[in-house]
TrEMBL record:
Keyword Metal-binding: no
Record-given protein name: Quercetin dioxygenase-like cupin family protein
Protein origin, superkingdom: Bacteria
Coiled coil: none
Source organism phylogeny: Bacteria, Pseudomonadati, Acidobacteriota, Terriglobia, Terriglobales
GO molecular function, one term: dioxygenase activity
A Pfam family that the UniProt record links to this protein: Cupin_2
Length: 170
């Protein structure tokens, strides 16, 4: 039997211009239905991928803390400044391991947070409780204790003027 060739189709292939059953469509209506169905599958798949991408990026964004500077003031100690900020942890939010190279006083306003410095014990703080970190401390745990509710706290630093408030470390 001689192989037939169809314009625009791969040689010896039944995939071009056939239905799902491998049959040649009997009319253009069947062919258009197949095209529409494939387009529907493609659009559903595309929407699924976009939804997953949005969920994943939303999860990543939800992990970042929001930091707001309240005030900064030069102190009468040479080269030192006071800095006051608020930190808002979203549900499940946490910080990387870091240090501050400053004296840091934390006061919890809302929610519950977990703090720990290297060599110290893990401490869970609730509204009205405070925590201290010294300039030599490495902050190994800083996170929201809740996976469903946000947490907010005030931090007051005494630090070198112009120095960053957070220095990533191991």
């Amino acid at each position: 039997m001689a192989a037939t060739s169809r314009i625009g189709c791969a040689p010896n292939s039944n995939s071009c211009g056939t239905t799902r059953n491998g049959e040649v469509p009997t009319n253009t209506h069947d062919a258009w239905n197949d095209v529409a169905q494939m387009k529907g599958y493609f659009m559903t798949f595309t929407k699924l991928i976009l939804a997953l991408a949005c969920l994943m990026s939303g999860t990543l964004l939800a992990q970042e803390a929001k930091v707001t500077e309240l005030m900064s003031k030069d102190l009468s100690f040479p080269g030192k400044e006071g800095l006051m900020i608020t930190v808002e942890y979203p549900p499940g939010g946490k910080d990387p391991i870091h240090r501050h190279n400053a004296y840091e006083f934390i006061y919890v306003l809302e929610g519950s947070i977990v703090m720990q410095v290297r060599g110290g014990k893990e401490t869970t703080l609730t509204p009205g409780q405070a925590f201290y970190e010294g300039p030599d401390d490495v902050h190994v745990i800083g996170r929201n204790a809740s996976q469903t509710k946000p947490a907010k706290f005030v931090v007051f630093f005494v630090k070198d003027k112009g120095a960053p408030i957070l220095v990533p470390t191991k």
